[in-house]
Amino acid sequence: MNSISCPTKFGCTFLSVVLLSIVFIAQQPSAGHAGRSGGHIIQLSSSAFPAGGNIPRQFTCQGEDVSPELTWKNAPKHTKVFALIVHDPDAPRAGGFTHWVAYNIPAKVNHLPQAIPSGEQLPGGGLQGKNDFEQLGYRGPCPPSGTHRYYFYLYALDLELNLRPGATKEDVERDMKGHLIEKAELMGKYGKLP
User: Fold this and answer.
1) Which of 62, 143, 151, 160 has its CA 20 to 30 A from that of 80?
2) Tens digits of per-residue pLDDT, 101-117?
3) pTM of the predicted model as reported, rounded to 2 decimal places
4) Which among 77, 76, 69, 48 is positioned nearest to 184, based on CA atoms?
5) How far apart are CA 96 and CA 130, in angstroms?
6) What is the chain's alpha carbon radius of gyration, rounded to the nearest angstrom?
7) How many whole angstroms separate alpha carbon 83 and alpha carbon 173?
């Protein structure tokens, strides 16, 4: 390797500062990955169905109508709470149909067990909101016809939302504006069985 010769002491000092600055900048994370754990995007999954797959009958209005298990990983470092919204954009009404709203889930939580009871509180912390059935908690897929897509959206937020139990999807979306760090989604499909 060739050595670099410096014509003056000032030239060597200047060159050293430039090289150190380049090394420092190269080691900084890009702005798009700020706050992420290990530079990975938050991932949401369920043991009940694969991404893009069919949601089993037990999690729908034709079955036990219980919530599926959900797990997430790689949450951003500065997450204070999570919010969860389950929404059907294919429902035959303006804006689609919301099946589950939950929020202020503590950052230490990375899992929701199957069959969470209806009510104001989530196990492990957090609150449940009101779905479009006008009920607290989860209500499963129940399309009037055809196969619908059901999106499970998980939001990592930098502050706790100032909402009481029973908030709607619109309430949560309004209050989390400007506080969203990262979002994950999981989509499952369901068509009513004869």
Assistant:
1) 151
2) 999 999 999 999 999 99
3) 0.80
4) 76
5) 15
6) 23
7) 9
